Amino acid sequence: MRNTLLLLLTMVPILAIGQTQINPQAGITFQSLTDSPEGTEFKANIGFIVGGDIRFGDVFYLQPGAFYGRNVTATTFQATDPDGNVIAEVEDDLIRTTLKLRGMLGYKLINGDGFKLRVATGVSYDLLLGIDNSEGNIAWEMDDFKDGSFNLDLAVGLDIAFLTVEPGLSYGLTNVFEDDPLLSENDAKYVTTSLTVGIVLGGGSR
What we know:
Blueprint: H1 2-18, E1 20-33, E2 40-57, E3 60-80, E4 86-111, E5 115-132, E6 148-160, E7 163-172, E8 190-199, E9 201-202
Antiparallel strand pairs: 1-2, 1-8, 1-9, 2-3, 3-4, 4-5, 5-6, 6-7, 7-8
């Protein structure tokens, strides 16, 4: 009995390693806002994301991950006269640096030896690390924004041999702007699409 227990304890980490994959990735993001204050227009612009996740399991799997990102939103402010005519317009990029912490639950629709098609959903939290005001046309400040945003995430993954491609969507649940009377009157939330490419390291390939 003792020898059997020791054998099982020895096999547990081996089995866990066999069902664990590490996936370093890098890619692009497009981030916009769901609602714009009056006189303001937001459009998604290209940013980048780099990081990785770990998959635990085979057909069903858990997928925690962490990503460093730089998201860009093209912003236009317009000033109008009492008749509604535009008298001034200012354009700038809203550039946010974030750390995304994400937990997903996934399922492999196709689980072949060299080809896998996956879907996953879960939640994430984007911690705001900084605001880039290098262009200076619009005076964005850290205090204008919430410290972070909770999100619902959805992803579709494709694995071919050791390569992995994953388009994803992240929909914000937290209001973008801080509780400032000039900014918090709208319920703007982040909407981010992404496309990452990476490699698959480890087991769980069967």
